[in-house]
Amino acid sequence: MVIALGAFFVQSGQLGGLNFGKINFGVPLNSLGQNPVLKYNAPKGTLGSPTASGGSQTGGSQSGGSSGGTTGVSGLPSGTGPAFTPSGVSLPPMPAGSPTARFSDFYGRIKMGTASSKQLSLKAVFQSGEKVNVTGWYFKAKNGGWYVPKAINIYDPTGLAEPGDILLGRGETVNMYSGISPVGANFRLNLCTGYLNNNRTFSPSLPRQCPGADKATLRNFSAQCQDYVPGAVGGCREPKSNPPLPYYDEGCRKYLENFSFRGCFDTYRGKPSFLKSEGRVWMGTSFLNSRHDRVFLLDKNGYLVDWKEY
Question: In the predicted model, is pLDDT for residue 192 greater than 70?
């Protein structure tokens, strides 16, 4: 009886929805992005997972769209039927060399920005209030590929916060660079991350847009304090350990403790504007050609989101 039921499900394709591909990361998930060019073990057959709009792809077909799929270039799924059309989006012809014949539901909503041998970027261009999880999406180039890793959403002074999936909201970006993170982690920028430039070398540098001195607060301190502080702490700089202040101006010395990564974090962590709209990720050794390449961005189902040439 059990054998007969098993044979029925296999022949009828009812197990198609359980046939997922397997990602062999080769490194711990929390290190993903520091050791690139990861191997993708493709599924045998077709994908079976929900679409972003709530449809499904099972048994080689997609509700409201295309027909069966096969295993394509480098083990990534590609459709043999017409390209799937995301709702309300006008599609261009499928680009030459695409590793899939289907467009993603995210086409026109997440776009590639910069594409070069040293940098890739993604931006959310939709107008809704949703968040799109791009961790696990795949960049496919001529001679390799790389999965978008996890990143720390709130990078704190301990540097020990756990990374999580990268969720892009309206107008938010993630910039990905070749090389290794100077702090050993991918992270979202915040009001205070500019201070990290003071003891690490970032290329490019992190934005130096930390909160400056408050004039109303400075009026409570000595004239020397009012002259010294604005120029000493601008651009996320930390004041000298022995500032030129009167011995009696302990209030100013205490105020200067705010102008460090920890002091800034403790002061501004609860502000609505604390988190920036940009994330920084490092790809390790670049999988991209140093001169010319064509890069395809694929979602978790292996469907085409965007592409760039340089």
Answer: yes
